[in-house]
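hey
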């Protein structure tokens, strides 16, 4: 039922023993995941201790790890002046401590459709509307998989699946943690009014949704991501897209941190046309002009070097000696500074009087996939391709200038 690809990491679940979080807990268990259940006891009402005891008992019954926090032990500054703000900080401080303790992959929250509408009505002037399914906060990845469910849907789920819960826990949230909008507006909406607000949110998000669709299609089809579409997304959707892209294409499960998301965004916005960013082990994000790809073995990294004048030059991929010129390769002194880089999909070069795609011609010559990934092209100072080394399995080097490619070093 949950639209989320779980890996082998530790997952946290924030739970109150209300129907929303208990339904989510049951769905996670049904997906084969045993989350670490996190509960914060505010001691605001007589039944707070009872809810904690029942939740702890349920976790013992299911063999789940249970982490609890007594709000009375937390710094009380702000408790009496702005309880909603204080309680939010208390919650997330607690979640972050547990997150670090278990080196968690993600924190699951049972936010549902009412939370989406509340977020929209409270901040309708913002560039994005509603609550994101996957977000990041203080280095935590936060997942909200129930945003399409109503509170009543989740009560029905608990009843039909024999999941225990307490409406008193929901009452605590309504009375102390929710805004006046939730109590005075959202709770009084009928189905038609609720639908109208959701439709309004969708219309205002139309541009964002078009970018999301383009990114979603690329992910489904195992295609590279368009950088313009990716960075046009609001942060929450950007984080969601990156994680979905990695989960879809990586050969093993990888956790995406907030720092990695920031580093990738910085790389996307950089003026460097070719770059790469290590995710984990030999898995990399690869930037090639306006695209982001994923490399699973560290062998397909793009490279680009600028050579100011005829000289001897060495790098991990190739060695060259053009110190006495390279006219035998049709490279003239007035072409400098030249750029030597890996082949890009859009590259074309004149072969036998005809303009043809470089990759297509190299593949037709029988080049291997690994060698194709590192084969160099030479561009003049104006960015025009002026030389592509010939590939032929039976070819013998006849140039006086030297160029040696080292695939084993890549």
């Amino acid at each position: 039922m949950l639209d989320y690809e779980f890996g082998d990491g530790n997952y946290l679940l924030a739970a109150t023993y209300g129907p929303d979080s208990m339904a989510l807990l049951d769905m996670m268990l049904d997906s084969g995941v045993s989350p670490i259940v996190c509960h914060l006891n505010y001691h605001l009402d007589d039944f707070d201790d009872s809810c904690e005891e029942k939740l702890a008992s349920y976790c013992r019954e299911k063999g789940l790890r249970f982490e609890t926090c007594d709000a009375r032990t937390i710094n009380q500054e702000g408790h009496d002046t702005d309880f909603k703000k204080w309680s939010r900080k208390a919650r997330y401080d607690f979640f972050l401590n547990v997150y670090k303790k278990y080196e968690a992959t993600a924190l699951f929250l049972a936010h549902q459709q009412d939370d989406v509408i509340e977020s929209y009505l409270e901040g309708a002037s913002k560039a994005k509307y509603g609550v994101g399914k996957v977000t990041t906060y203080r280095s935590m990845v936060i997942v909200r998989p129930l945003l399409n469910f109503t509170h009543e849907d989740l009560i029905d789920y608990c009843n039909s699946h024999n999941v225990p819960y307490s409406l008193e826990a929901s009452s605590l949230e309504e009375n102390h943690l929710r805004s006046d909008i939730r109590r005075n507006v959202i709770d009084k909406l009928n189905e038609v009014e609720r639908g109208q607000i959701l439709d309004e949110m969708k219309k205002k998000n139309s541009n964002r949704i078009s970018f999301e669709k383009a990114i979603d299609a690329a992910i489904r089809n195992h295609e590279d991501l368009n950088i313009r579409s990716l960075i046009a997304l609001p942060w929450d959707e950007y984080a969601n897209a990156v994680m979905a892209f990695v989960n879809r294409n990586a050969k093993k499960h990888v956790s995406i941190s907030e720092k990695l998301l920031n580093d990738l965004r910085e790389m996307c916005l950089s003026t460097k046309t070719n770059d790469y960013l290590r995710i984990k082990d030999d898995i990399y994000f690869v930037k090639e002009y306006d695209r982001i790809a994923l490399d699973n073995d560290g062998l397909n990294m793009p490279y680009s070097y600028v050579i100011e004048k005829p000289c001897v030059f060495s790098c991990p991929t190739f060695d060259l000696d053009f110190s006495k010129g390279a006219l035998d390769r049709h490279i003239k002194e007035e072409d400098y500074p030249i750029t030597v880089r890996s082949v890009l999909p859009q590259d074309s070069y004149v072969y036998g009087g005809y303009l043809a795609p470089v990759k297509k011609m190299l593949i037709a010559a029988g080049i291997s996939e690994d060698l194709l990934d590192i084969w160099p092209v030479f561009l003049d100072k104006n960015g025009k391709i002026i030389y592509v080394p010939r590939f032929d399995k039976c070819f013998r080097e006849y140039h006086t200038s030297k160029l040696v490619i080292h695939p084993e070093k890549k």
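DSSP finds 14 helices and 19 strands in the chain. The longest strand covers residues 274-280.
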